Amino acid sequence: GCVGQRARAARAWPCPPDAQRREDSATEGNCMGRGTVLLILAANRDEFYNRPSKSADFWGSNNEILSGLDMEEGKEGGTWLGITTHGKLAALTNYLQPQLDRKARGRGELVTHFLTTEVDSLSYLKKISVEGHLYNGFNLVAADLRCICREGSAALPPGVYGLSNALLDTPWRKLCFGKRLFQEAVAQSQVLPKDVLVAQLLDVLSNEEAQLPDPAIEDQGQEYVQPILNKYAAVCVRCPGYGTRTNTIILVDADGHVTFTERSMLDKDPSRWETSTHEFTLQS
């Protein structure tokens, strides 16, 4: 039904090996409670601190798209997570691999293209499924939120899902740990003030406790991940010059009201952050 609808999700198809330039992690779930919250998404963006980007804001021909934007030369306009006022939502994570194909297309365009077209999520994912070889490894989540409110059709049943840099719900220790913290935070979401819930979820995304040992990460990342393993194996990654730069919380209620909170690092300094919130109601 409407409550707890999960986004449709797809993993990239066999791609050239990749030297992971960006890791991301996302956990999403729902609070059944009184049935007012349809979707809660909590996500981290992990990236090199010196990679230029814009913080989340409205853009598009009618300011109908809300997202941060990658400003890396040659990949300008791509994004890792975004939502539109018409109810389209997409999120991207990289798939951890030990080498990168430098000639591959920028993965951020996968989210941007979905948000800027009229095609529905399932059709878009089918299209991408035959084009995945053009990119380095990725996971792409796409959803039509208005369908959640009206129809309740789902590719994933109601529940709590975690997505890091492997397949959906791959039991990396940091993902299992993050999901547990997430569930504890949202368990009483229906009786918590919204700002308190958001603050608790930001605390989850900021947890730097390494979850080791984790043979699954070591096997997948091989020699690439070894030098940063003790930092990479945490929900919040904090390495010299690289790590978690952005936390995003998205709440969607049964009336189609969206609260989008972003906490972003300032000036490449892990001790300085700025938080902004955008709220709107989905358009029919």
Would you give an account of this structure?
With 284 residues, this protein is of the alpha+beta class. The protein has one domain (39-281): Penicillin V Acylase, Chain A. Helix content is 23%, strand content 33%. The protein has helices spanning 108-115, 121-129, 145-150, 173-186, 194-205, 215-225, 229-232; strands at residues 8-11, 24-29, 37-48, 53-59, 65-70, 81-84, 88-94, 138-144, 161-163, 238-239, 242-253, 257-266, 269-281. Strand 2 (24-29) and strand 3 form a beta hairpin. Helix 4 packs antiparallel against helix 5.
Q: Can you lay out the helices and strands and say which pair or pack?
A:
Blueprint: E1 8-11, E2 24-29, E3 37-48, E4 53-59, E5 65-70, E6 81-84, E7 88-94, H1 108-115, H2 121-129, E8 138-144, H3 145-150, E9 161-163, H4 173-186, H5 194-205, H6 215-225, H7 229-232, E10 238-239, E11 242-253, E12 257-266, E13 269-281
Helix pairs in contact: 4-5
Protein name: Transport and golgi organization 2 homolog
Organism: Propithecus coquereli (Coquerel's sifaka)
InterPro entries: TANGO2
